[in-house]
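Worked example (supplementary).
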Amino acid sequence: MYSVVNESDLVDNPTPRVPVCLCLDTSGSMDGDPINELNRGIHQFYEEIKADEVTMYSAEISIVTFGGDDAECIKDFATLDASESAPTLDSRGGTPMGEAVNMALDMLEARKQQYKDAGVDYYQPWLVLMTDGMPNGDASELSRSIQRTVEMLNNKKLTVFPIGIGDEADMDTLEKFSPKRKPLRLKGLKFKEFFAWLSKSVSKTSQSMPGENVKLDPTSG
Amino acid sequence: MWKAAFCAVTGREHIVEGIPCQDKVCSALQNGVAAIALCDGAGSAKLSHYGAECTAQTVCDYLCTHFDDMYGNSDARAVRLAISESILSTLTSLSQKLQCNISDLVSTLLFVAVKDTAFIAGHIGDGVMGYLKGDNLLVASKPNNGEFANTTVFTTSSGASSAMRLMKGTLNEVRAFVIMSDGTEASLYDKRHKSLAPVLKRLMNLLAWQKEANAQAMLQNALSGAIARATGDDLSIAFLVKSDAFPSFCALSKAEKLAMLGIRHNISNHCMKRYDNILSCLSYRAMTLRQMRHKIHLKPSRAQKYADRLVNQGIINETGGVYYPIEKS
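After joint prediction of all chains, the assembly is encoded as:
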């Protein structure tokens, strides 16, 4: 059977991207089991993303941590290489949450501009914010980060998943970042279960079509 | 003379999930107007395939009936509103008949109509519209996805009427139009450079030479092969071509002939002449390969090679070992 149009006739457009920022508390209180389980969860997240051929080319992961005196970009937005390993995070110091969220939002805006310049389509970005305590960084940075996040939420420019770890997590502050979606408290140290849900959700989003409502699996449990 | 050709193919993902093709395309030739319309039903709308079909037909009929009024009206807003109201009216009737909400029937929309030396075209949502002016393949309307890949505007979205891109003008050197859904756009529209794949020009040329049945088969072939393998989404495309504006194969330049033959390197004039000779033979009557090679003095393997390429590129037909010319209708 002849073919009027061949592979070589087609345009090779880049895969639409799902930018996902993990904004993670690595303060001193995360020392011990919490940081170990968080590292295992991130490792599993990486492996599940890499195992799905469509998601691997679509999901762009960035990691910003807040511990010590300042926020730190561990990984800027990029798809995962097949050989790429998850970073191992250490815990230390304070909880500069506002600084970290502002850094994450700045990185996101820069990445979106790169997408636009390169003609790359993208889905609504995700911000996963996880903390086990109260923010104790600069108050004005915290206030600014909350304002920016809520503005983006109201304009439907961002999806936020605020997650409290343990009993000491400041759920009130987390709720300020996400007035419409109540923050969730992680059950115990079930990081692996959470990141398994996150990778499935990213996969569903990366395969959605225009006009399709993406129904994520429930987060209970 | 303008002729229309169109095709829609169910995407692999829809086949697996048992969802009908939500891309619908139609054409109309009435009152001196040639029109095409293409609608892509919303993924989340359970009956959007019905809505897409209804909308495409409504718009084609509207264009054929109201072309002169639309073209002569300098108030673009009023024209957009009239089209939108026509669509809404039909969808309302359909929603009552199917006992569903209008939101279950929504779709995107692209349309083009030509009459004499004038054209009208419109676009709501994603998908792409292009045209061939002289030898230049150009984009008339880019996809309107909004900021995110899985969002777009639909025919009944709030502000759809004002979001509709509406164009009109004189044809001048325009020889063909093409409209396609986002599934097809993924393979035939370069998002970075905002340009259309050159293969569309070849398809336009081939369609200008084909009879309607052959044109449909050719488009089915085009969408069902490499393009369908590149995406799981539904695929659809429609063309309006001015058949008498496209020269016969023998009248094309060498570069154009190479493009039509799908040959990416230069060949000798002597080799090119063989293709011309085969087509000349067939312009008189259908022939077998043996008859052809005797006429133009070719070895069997050589004659087979040239004939195969002409058949593969849709320039001639072959049935039961007999080769036929493609006739202009």
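Two points are worth noting when inspecting this output. The beta strands of chain A are 18-25, 59-67, 70-78, 126-131, 159-165, 184-186. Chain A has a mean pLDDT of 89.
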